[in-house]
Design a protein that fits this description.
The complex is a heterodimer.
Chain A: E1 4-13, E2 16-26, E3 31-35, H1 42-50, E4 57-62, E5 65-66, E6 77-80, H2 92-103, H3 114-124, H4 126-138, H5 154-166, E7 172-176, H6 184-201, E8 204-209, H7 212-218, E9 221-226, E10 229-234, H8 236-241, H9 246-251, E11 258-264, E12 268-270, E13 276-278, E14 288-294, E15 299-302, E16 309-318, E17 322-329, H10 337-343, E18 347-352, E19 362-367, E20 373-375
Parallel strand pairs in A: 3-8, 3-9, 6-7, 7-8
Antiparallel strand pairs in A: 1-2, 1-4, 4-5, 9-10, 11-12, 11-14, 12-13, 14-20, 15-19, 16-17, 16-19, 17-18
Chain B: H1 3-35, H2 39-43, H3 59-65, H4 68-99, H5 105-114, H6 124-134, H7 140-165, H8 168-176, H9 181-192, H10 194-209, H11 213-218, H12 227-233, H13 242-264
Classes of the chains: A alpha+beta, B mainly alpha.
């Protein structure tokens, strides 16, 4: 079973650089998610692993052996396309059987007439038929085997595409945004099914998505990419709680991490509006201006001014189980909150339960200082190993 | 529009349609009618509007005299040859032009389609010289080659347009499944463009079937005449067996119609619907 290694992989399309120096390791049996905004190069990366796109420079190795020169079929992979790419002129049964038929295909089977006879013979052979039925059973496709893809619903087509990937029992499953064409409810269901499949087959999965929920719920490790560059590699917890830079901090979480500009004093940070936040154990290397990373759910409403900051509510989104609060910091020197609102950006707090707050109300907020991340305002990278 | 108005419009369009069909089919009817008339009727003024069905049993005899089967056989050889040869060449050319990146792709496509800009008559003389050199005069394969050269680019154009519409991911998927390039063409692309293949086949077949100009110039051996040339030869200086020629012309159109009906069922599109979510 392969361990996949990327050694400084680059990809240019003409003059535009799509992937810049991609180096990473994927362990065997891992569920790796390539996460990033559209156009970040994650699909290109997946296609290079599959061999559908050539690398411009660098090596992709399976178990230490370069696969750069290998054709897709020699890499023992399966690829699930975003559009499913089912064969429209074949029944579901033939679609699933196709990889197995190709495994047993000889060059002279290309001859017309002989071709269709041989394909039917291989498909009806017990070893192929049994395997197809076995896979169809796993994905609950048995009643649909005679149907054509165009008569299937989106979720059913998705299942057929997965079945076709599963049938040859490949070492690596490559999935390119497989759920993006499904509606929200079906997406949740298929997410669980793919995770279940991963547990069942115990093979390496590489999954491309721009949806952070899919990444967080399915991945054993995530690679966050932006503009062809790896921003961070880590488990979902690491990505969420210790983002490597401001890009990851802004990309993950809904609403994303607040990046509040602050000036570091000895035991406190001065936030916008001259609001002061007492923080124990401020990393000593920090001095002067910094970005304070605060997850919205670590902010709570306080009853008194003690150890809290004053803020003005600018938006309230009551979702029932939680309330997302947009706020700006009040200006302590001059309590004209309209002025401060113009001068600073809106931050967000995620509160449990329903809160009936009105826009414009002044409130006190406490910030859980134990989970604060610190970022360099110039480079955007995090001070990670300080606390 | 109200209901009565819509009905009236529908009626008008149907009447118009019927008128067009009558105008289009009248020559065929008249061909049939003429084939059953006697010479005296034809060259006098007595041709009746109603076909003289009682003469129907004389027609096979008349057709046998002009060796219609030999003529049709030659036409069929040319038409089938052109259709098969253009199909093989055009499918591969169209696939390459649609999917592959290679140097000179634009220019080769241009040259292919530029053959359509020249009238065939312009090339009769140079082709005659060429065919004389290759010993292709008085040879039906020569006619197959000449007609394929003229009609294949049309087939390429039709097929390329169809292949362009197939999502490339379907072939990539086949590639991952272990399908060779020929397999992708034969097992994925061709089945998906069947309607366009049928349309191209109709065009190529009719081009070969209707071949006249080259055959008239290159074939002097009477045994190798296709039906089109053969029929023309009966238009004699002194006599023209008009009813027999008309009967032969009618028979000449039948295989073409049969071929069209055969592939017509395939000329339905929408086969790719459902390949990708759309």
């Amino acid at each position: 079973m392969p361990r996949i290694t990327f050694d400084n992989v680059r990809k240019n399309f003409g003059k535009s650089v799509v992937i810049e120096g991609f180096s990473a390791d994927i362990a065997d049996g891992e569920f790796l998610v390539l996460l990033g905004p559209s156009g970040c190069g994650k699909s290109t990366m997946l296609r290079m692993i599959a061999g559908l796109t050539d690398t411009s420079e660098g090596d992709i190795s399976f178990d230490g052996e370069s696969v750069n020169a290998l054709e897709p079929r020699e890499r023992n992979i399966a690829f699930v396309f975003q559009s499913y790419a089912l064969y429209p002129h074949m029944s579901v049964l033939d679609n699933i059987a196709f990889p197995l038929i190709m495994d047993r295909f000889k060059p002279w089977y290309h001859l017309p007439i002989l071709n269709s006879i041989v394909r039917r013979m291989i498909r009806n052979s017990p070893e192929v038929k049994d395997r197809v039925l076995e896979v169809a059973k796993i994905l609950e496709l048995e009643p649909l085997l005679d149907r054509r893809p165009r008569t299937l619903s989106g979720g059913q087509r998705q299942r057929v595409a997965v079945a076709r990937a599963l049938v040859r029992d490949p070492e690596v499953y490559l999935l390119d945004e497989p759920l993006s064409n499904l509606d929200a409810k079906l997406r949740t269901q298929m997410r669980a099914e793919i995770t279940g499949l991963y547990r069942k087959v115990k093979k390496t999965f590489i999954y491309v998505t721009h949806d952070q929920v899919e990444a967080m719920t399915m991945a054993s490790r995530i690679i966050v990419m932006d503009e062809g560059v790896i921003r961070q590699i880590g488990t979902p917890e690491e990505i969420y709680h210790s983002p490597a830079d401001t890009f990851v901090a802004r990309f993950i979480g809904s609403p994303p991490m607040n990046l509040i500009p602050g000036a570091v004093m000895s035991d406190r940070v001065v936030l916008p509006g001259k609001q002061e936040l007492k923080v124990q154990n401020i990393p000593s290397v920090l001095g002067g201006q910094t970005l304070v990373g605060v997850r919205p759910e670590t902010i709570r409403i306080a009853s008194s001014a003690k150890e809290s900051v004053r803020a003005t509510v600018v938006s309230v989104e009551n979702l029932g189980a939680e309330t997302v609060l947009g706020f700006v910091f009040c200006n302590d020197a001059n309590s004209d909150s309209l002025l401060t609102r113009d001068n600073q950006s809106t931050f967000f707090a995620k509160l449990e339960g329903s809160h009936s707050l009105t826009e414009g109300a002044e409130i006190f907020l406490t910030i859980d200082t134990t989970n604060i991340r610190w970022f360099d305002p110039d480079s955007g990278s995090a001070f990670l190993d300080l606390s | 529009m109200n209901r009565a108005g819509r009905k009236l419009g529908q009626l008008a369009s149907r009447l118009l349609l019927i008128a067009f069909i009558l105008i289009a089919s009248f020559p065929i009817y008249w061909m049939f009618n003429t084939s059953l008339a006697t010479d005296s009727e034809l060259f006098g003024s007595g041709q009746k509007f109603v076909p003289q069905l009682q003469r129907l049993n004389e027609v096979p005899q008349n057709l046998a005299e002009i060796e219609i089967l030999k003529l049709l056989g030659n036409s069929a050889f040319i038409a089938t040859g052109v259709t098969v040869l253009s199909f093989i060449l055009a499918v591969m050319a169209a696939y390459a032009l649609s999917r592959f990146k290679f140097h000179g792709k634009g220019i080769s496509g241009f040259f292919l389609f530029s053959t359509q800009m020249m009238p065939e008559a312009l090339l009769v003389v140079p082709l005659f010289a060429l065919f004389a050199g290759f010993g292709l005069l008085n040879d039906l394969t020569g006619l197959v080659l000449a007609n394929t050269a003229f009609t294949m680019p049309v087939a390429v154009f039709i097929m390329k347009t169809a292949i362009d519409k197939i999502p490339y991911e379907i072939e990539e998927s086949a590639k991952v499944d272990g399908c060779s390039p020929y397999g992708q063409l034969g097992m994925i692309v061709i089945p998906l463009i069947l309607p366009s293949l049928a349309a191209a086949a109709v065009i190529n077949f009719f081009d070969g079937w209707n071949e006249f100009l080259f055959a008239n110039s290159f074939i002097t051996d009477q045994d190798l005449w296709p039906a089109s040339v053969g029929l023309a030869q009966f238009m004699g200086q002194y006599s023209t067996p008009l009813s027999t020629v008309m009967a032969a012309a009618l028979v000449f159109t039948l295989p073409a119609i049969a071929f069209f009906l055969l592939v017509q069922r395939q000329i339905i599109s929408g086969l790719t619907a459902g390949a990708v979510k759309g």
